[in-house]
Amino acid sequence: MGASSAMFLPLLLEGKWGLPPYLIQESGLNSGFMITQYCSAALASENKSMCFPASADSIPTSMGQEDHVSMGSISARKALRIIYNLEKILAIELLCAAQATRKASLETLIQNGKKILNRMMEYGTTTMETKSGYGLDVENEIKSLLAAKELNLEHPMDVISTFLGAHAVPPEYEGETDDYIELIISEMIPKVAQEELAEFCDVFCEEGIFSVVQTKRILKAAMKYGLKPQIHIDEIV
């Protein structure tokens, strides 16, 4: 998962798909998200180096009767470190994806979406679910769902939309999660429902992101507007 995420970032940063290089306009001395990609690649490489089996270098114990006790703790420590690094890799991908979504125009999202749907149909896929959750503000969450709605109307594949404004807390709301939740409930959900942009509402319920109490609050508000509830829970930890 970490390697796939790290290899996806260059595609976002290379200046294709209607996006500016390094996801920054008129960069000049600003290298945009280049250094974040370095960090992601380094963490992914570190994880690969820790995947060498601990059992391949074990020392017998208990008068030559056992050897698993000498490697079990090593494997556990490496697994914990890999998970810790993976959290950072996925967080970097989310930051880059959010920036890419905000920089892309509605037409860019639609045209790129058509290319992806065409490729999926070549492999026999006829129905897909798409989620927002990378704009993380009113304008860009609505833009993402508008693109999905247009794709469902224009493309032969069935596209089912889910509103995932509660995917993460955007940087501008760092330390103010409740204020962002209020934005979701008071502005995003009503607009999504009014324009019939999604069938479902999803929340990323995870330690350090949205708590169980916060998740219930968002989903209850969504259900009042007729959106069906979904939930990501304990996906990372």
From TrEMBL:
It holds the Pfam family Lyase_aromatic. Gene3D superfamilies: Metal-dependent hydrolases. One of its GO terms (biological process) is L-histidine catabolic process to glutamate and formamide. GO terms for molecular function: imidazolonepropionase activity; metal ion binding. InterPro entries: Aromatic_Lyase (IPR001106), HutI (IPR005920), L-Aspartase-like (IPR008948), Metal_Hydrolase (IPR032466). The keyword Membrane does not apply. The keyword Hydrolase applies. GO terms for cellular component: cytoplasm. Keywords: Hydrolase, Metal-binding. This is Histidine ammonia-lyase. It comes from marine sediment metagenome.
